[in-house]
Design a protein that fits this description.
heterodimer, A: mainly alpha, 3 helical TM bundles of succinate and fumarate reductases, 78% helix, B: mainly alpha
Chain lengths: 127, 129
């Protein structure tokens, strides 16, 4: 016996009211972050004593610019998805939960934007 | 509500490697989300100019910042290694109890080794200049 309504069956969604997007995007960003993080850590360790000019030069090199933007977007997106789950699991007062979710999503989106603008500013020689 | 049977709560279970690593994955994730702000600050300072970059660098080389950064380094490596363990579970590998424990211990060992290597690298370069 199927207790689902026809509409529910057509939409194919459970009580979470959404599909696998969240889960899948968390995995996609995780896969991207494995090589990106390792690359970044090694690059930073090799340049610990770099001057401002050397750092600017390194960030401006096109491959590094692209990888850095990819790293920061993936990181902040992965952060938003992860914190969302933590908040949904542990915060049970509805208005606190929604406020925190809004704060996390808007705040970290702003961080992602700010980091991309900083990288591009440097890459286009305005740093 | 009173008298209703309840499912056993988390508190009644003895901590095991698998459950401890699971909650640590979350804790390091939350801790790292604060760490991303440092990365943003570094980039932001670099984009503004040499003066703000110098300020950012001196903030980061303070002893207290270095201790927090050591914590972030460990969290990063733990979350990275355990994240790979999760991705392997996602493709269906490593669910056997023996394997789950082996990969769990491997994650802990790797996190400590990588953190130690990273900071050895940092301290050696500091001594060199």
């Amino acid at each position: 016996m199927n207790l689902k309504s026809d509409l529910g069956r057509v939409r194919g969604l459970g009580s979470a009211k959404e599909g696998t997007r969240h889960w899948w995007h968390q995995r996609l960003t995780a896969i991207a972050l494995v090589p990106l993080t390792l690359w970044f850590v090694i690059a930073i360790l090799a340049r610990l004593n770099s001057s401002h000019t050397e750092t600017i030069e390194w960030i401006s090199f096109p491959l590094n610019t692209v990888l850095l933007i990819a790293l920061l977007i993936s990181t902040f997106y992965h952060t938003i998805l992860g914190l969302q789950v933590v908040i949904e699991d542990y915060v049970h007062v509805e208005w606190t939960k929604v406020s925190l979710l809004i704060l996390v999503k808007l705040g970290f989106s702003l961080c992602a934007l700010a980091s991309v603008v900083s990288i591009l500013k440097i890459a286009f020689g305005m740093g | 509500m009173a008298g209703n049977p309840l499912s056993p709560h988390l508190q009644v279970y003895r901590p095991q490697l698998t459950s401890v690593l699971s909650i640590m994955h979350r804790a390091t994730g939350v801790f790292l989300s604060v760490g991303t702000l440092l990365l943003l600050y570094w980039l932001f300072a670099a984009s503004i100019g040499p003066d703000s970059y110098a300020i950012a660098r001196s903030c980061m080389s303070a002893t207290l910042s270095q201790i927090v950064m050591a914590g972030w380094t460990f969290s990063l490596y733990f979350h990275l290694c355990n994240g790979v363990r999760h991705l392997l579970w996602d493709i269906g590998w490593g669910f056997e109890l023996v394997t789950a424990y082996r990969t769990g211990y491997a994650v802990v060992a790797m996190s400590f080794v990588l953190t130690a290597l990273t900071w050895a690298c940092v301290l050696m370069q500091r001594g060199g200049t």
